[in-house]
């Protein structure tokens, strides 16, 4: 188990550092390419980062959350959630890129890896998986923290699916406007919408897709009697993964001057995520996850060093 924890820690470090370097590349190097002349092998490093940087940070995030889920939830919970999240999200994305439903008319450009059916980069359903799992675990554990009569379990389960989907959609509030309009966009809208270039339909598509795959995953957990209960220490990794990805999108939107999406995302995403984490207790797994807390601190320090 310690070997798995070490790999998980490495993936988490890499995920955070890759996002820091991605921000530096998109916001600093792309607008000022002359900087590359002062860096050893600058042009080569920049080409590599633009060709594989997006793929790398998504793969590292996926691996970190998958190893975390295996360690804390068990193999059954991990597999059932992954099947639901990846299967349903790639179906939604293929429908979206070919028909315009449920997100609107958009097309993925290059930079996120091999495209399934020539339409959807394989990394996109992976991002739905790892961000969706982080959001759902925070929502489910936060809402379950208050306890309550057994007869209300179904209501808490429904609320967890809805809140988890809102947390996931809130990430897109700050991600999509900036990433589709940056100097090197990863996708574009055929018909720019009224919300900072995005159609409002996109939000409904995100919320609906999240509700479906989180609901299916929760249903599978109940059928197979997977009932992972997580405390505050055990939720550190999901919280950091969620906030790190939210922070990446927030900085991109700040650079683009999109302040309304940031405020909306903070109100419906970052703040509720932190409150869900704070609502849980510290009764289980303190020993094993103390190392995870250490890992987060080291990852943040590594990010600071990278920025310098």
TrEMBL record:
InterPro entries: CruF-like (IPR007354), CruF-like_cyanobact (IPR054684)
UniProt keyword annotation of Transmembrane helix present: yes
Keywords linked to the UniProt accession: Membrane, Transmembrane, Transmembrane helix
Domain of life, source organism: Bacteria
Transmembrane feature ranges: 12-30, 50-70, 77-96, 116-139, 151-171, 203-223, 235-252
Keyword Transmembrane in annotation: yes
Pfam families named among the record's database cross-references: Caroten_synth
Protein name: Carotenoid biosynthesis protein
Species this chain originates from: Shackletoniella antarctica
């Amino acid at each position: 188990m310690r070997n798995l924890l070490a790999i998980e820690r490495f993936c988490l470090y890499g995920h955070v550092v890759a996002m820091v370097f991605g921000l530096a590349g998109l916001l600093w190097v792309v607008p000022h390419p002359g900087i590359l002349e002062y860096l050893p092998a600058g042009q080569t490093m920049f080409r590599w980062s633009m060709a594989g940087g997006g793929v790398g940070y998504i793969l590292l995030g996926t691996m970190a959350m998958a190893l975390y889920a295996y360690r804390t939830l068990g193999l059954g919970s991990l597999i059932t959630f992954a099947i639901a999240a990846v299967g349903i999200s790639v179906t939604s994305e293929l429908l979206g890129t070919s028909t315009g439903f449920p997100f609107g008319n958009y097309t993925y450009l290059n930079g996120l890896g091999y495209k399934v059916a020539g339409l959807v980069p394989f990394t996109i359903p992976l991002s739905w998986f790892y961000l969706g799992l982080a959001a759902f675990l925070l929502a489910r554990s936060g809402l379950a923290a208050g306890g309550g009569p057994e007869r209300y379990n179904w209501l808490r389960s429904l609320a967890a699916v809805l809140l988890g989907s809102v947390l996931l959609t809130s990430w897109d509030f700050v991600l999509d406007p900036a990433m589709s309009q940056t100097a090197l966009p990863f996708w574009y809208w055929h018909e720019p919408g009224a919300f900072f270039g995005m159609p409002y339909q996109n939000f409904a598509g995100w919320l609906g897709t999240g509700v479906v795959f989180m609901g299916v995953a929760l249903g599978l957990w109940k059928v197979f009697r997977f009932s992972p209960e997580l405390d505050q220490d055990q939720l550190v990794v999901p919280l950091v993964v969620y906030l790190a990805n939210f922070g990446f999108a927030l900085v991109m939107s700040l650079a683009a001057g999109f302040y309304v999406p940031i405020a909306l995302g903070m109100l419906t995403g970052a703040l509720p995520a932190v409150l869900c984490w704070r609502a849980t207790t510290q009764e289980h797994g303190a020993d094993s996850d103390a190392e995870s807390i250490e890992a987060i601190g080291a990852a943040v320090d590594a990010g600071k060093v990278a920025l310098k």
